[in-house]
Amino acid sequence: MNVTPLEFEKPILELQKQLEDLQRGVESHEIDVSPEVRAINEKIELTRQEIYKNLTAWQRVQIARHTARPYTLDYVRMCCSDFIEVHGDRHIGDDHAMPCGFATIGGIRCVLIGQQKGRDTKENILRNFGCAHPEGYRKALRLMRLAERSRLPIVTLIDTPGAYPGIQSEERNIAEAIAFNLREMMTLTVPIVAVVIGEGGSGGALGIGVANSVLMLENAYYSVISPEGCAAILWKHRQHAPEAAEALKLTASHLLDLAIVDEVIPEPAGGAHYDPETAAHSLAEAVVRHLKKLQPMTGEQLIEHRYQKFRKYGAYEQTVLPVAADS
Fold first, then answer.
1. Is 223 helix (H, G, I), strand (E, B) or coil?
2. At what angle do helices 276-294 and 72-79 cross, to 10 degrees?
3. Contact partners, residue 148, CB within 8 Å, separation at least 6
4. Fewest CB atoms less than 10 Å from the CB: which of 110, 161, 172, 286?
5. What single DSSP character describes residue 251?
């Protein structure tokens, strides 16, 4: 797959060009360069392992935003045997940034809700760059209630920099739409599995993220604010985004340690966009495994399980100070 490399991946690209130049030069000469080819291939593999083993939080954010990365509808195509999309919130209209519908994953019929970005200007305008309006969240909730009536589990795929912050969104009450989803998702009596597949930005992500199991792809991020937004507030300049990304603890490994997510789904070396089929297989396997674990629970048990999960979020340390001796 021809993928545009990120800045920190340039050393791998340079070695690959050296290999191509060597092979091209040999085509017109009968020279055995197999030892040199083998050496360069070994160096490429070592360089790749070294780079991807030591990724910073900011580098993982860059991978999560890569335009070649699989989006929700890509995973639907690769993971689902069928998908019937449902449109509209029955109030304002249809939000193409939030595709929803019925799907079958690993033999399990479910309601699937996701956030969709675009890869070119035309598609990004259609999908509003993955930033849903209030009608997107209301459409999602309509499908969730339909899932509850049909006794179907819910799977959500989170990939958004945040809910749309424009005046149209404010006029239609985006804050209320997200807040209402948070409350209503907590009371649903069917299993909910949420997967952060790319960007998990702010309330826009959490608006479909209240789940019994919260999973996360290895190179995704999940944060209350974007690194650039945090840098603008704390350092007054977005150039400090790398430091902000580190401070926010927004990577999958950080959030697993903090018990914010329940499982990190591994990705192929370099990210899901280098081998989408393998990434999709890993995602589907994890989703099915968690759904099967949740399905035996009753509605009341699922609500309690979800409630206790979110009540445990957050960590603190308590220190008992020694009592000063009377003077």
1. strand
2. 80
3. 188, 189, 190
4. 172
5. B
Q: Quick one: DSSP state of residue 133? A: -
Among the four given CATH numbers 3.40.1190.10, 3.40.50.1980, 3.90.226.10, 3.40.50.970, the one describing domain 61-311 = 3.90.226.10
Q: Is the pLDDT of residue 148 over 60?
A: yes
Contact 221, 200 (CB under 8 A): yes
114 Cβ contact list (under 8 Å, min separation 6) = 72, 73, 75, 76, 98, 99, 100, 156, 157, 158, 159
Q: Which two tokens stand for residue 39?
A: 């050496």
d(CA 184, CA 169): 20
Q: What pLDDT digit, counting tens, does each position of 38-69 carry?
A: 787 778 778 777 788 888 999 999 999 999 99
Chain centroid, CA 196 distance in Å = 3
Q: Compute CA distances 254 → 56, 60, 158, 210, whole Å.
A: 12, 12, 18, 19
Residue with tokens 């009450």: 173
Structure tokens at 206: 């959490």
Which one is predicted more confidently, 230 or 10?
230
Q: How confident is the model at residue 134 (pLDDT cuts 50, 70, 90)?
A: very high
SS3 (DSSP) at 309: helix
Are 138 and 98 in contact by the 8 Å Cβ rule? The answer is no
The CA distance from 32 to 241, in Å, is 48
pLDDT exceeds 90 at position 35: no
Q: Which two tokens stand for residue 168?
A: 């149209």
